[in-house]
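Marked as duplicate of an earlier ticket. Keeping the data here for the record.
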Amino acid sequence: MLRLLKRRRRAEGLTGLSLLPDGIALAHVRRVAGSAPELVRCEHRACEASPAARRAVLREMVRAHGLAGSRCVAVLEPGDYQLLQVEAPAVPPEELRAAVRWQVRDLLDYHIDDAVIDVFDVPGDERPGRPMYVVAARAADVQAVVDLAHEAELELEAIDIAELALRNVAACMPEADRGLALVRLRAAEGMILIVREGALHLARNVEFGSASLAADGPGASHERLALEVQRSLDYYDSAFRQAPVTRVVVAPFEGDARGLAEHLHASLGLTAETLDLDEILTPAEPVPAEVQARALEAVGGALRIEERSL
């Protein structure tokens, strides 16, 4: 979302950073030609959300793993930005961001002058009036992430959003070019993404999460989620006019991901499976499912490829 000035590079590979409400996730990926990306580090540490606590914990994580000076992509938490869909204004490319700022000024709960704005297109459509995504974040929140990374001796190259970090993970799945729907759940909310050929085609928020599934068992919440996935697939089919997506992938979460995948398979009649980083990447050591659930966006940040970025 935000490209930053590059400094001298010291460490090989790319570090992903995710600041969670109750901790910090850090991942480091090294790409090797002809093989799956190597997941060198993947860790989550619990800490308070205060700046001082985060500074101390992140510094310790960076030093413990020898990542000082490494290139870094920080991934914002969904609550720290807004992802809006608007009609693309009929203006020259160099005027696009200014025109979009004008469009979204009344959709933010803070003044537009206090916002950092970026845009990215929905693939396969370049006509005026086409749908496009706008990312808006408070400039002060973005600057806080910049300062935190700098104090931890990370060379921050970009700040990204969860949807695009998860896209990077989905793109590593076998046969991902044929398209898949990715279900990502947190405790109180979630999102459904449709990714094809390394591009994010659709992102939808779900206003309930793994806590509802755990409380409900294989009941109403599971059916509600299946309905949201079906609606996402139906919209994709009507809007993009491509081959239907017939594969659903459930990202790891604090709950029964395999049971949810089985329920979606039974409800939707589609291939449904769980995502396991140990299977789609080359991990230096196995990553426990509970760490994967916490660190997935950080891994996606570390998988960022500039050619596919905003």
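See parent ticket for discussion. The longest strand covers residues 38-46.
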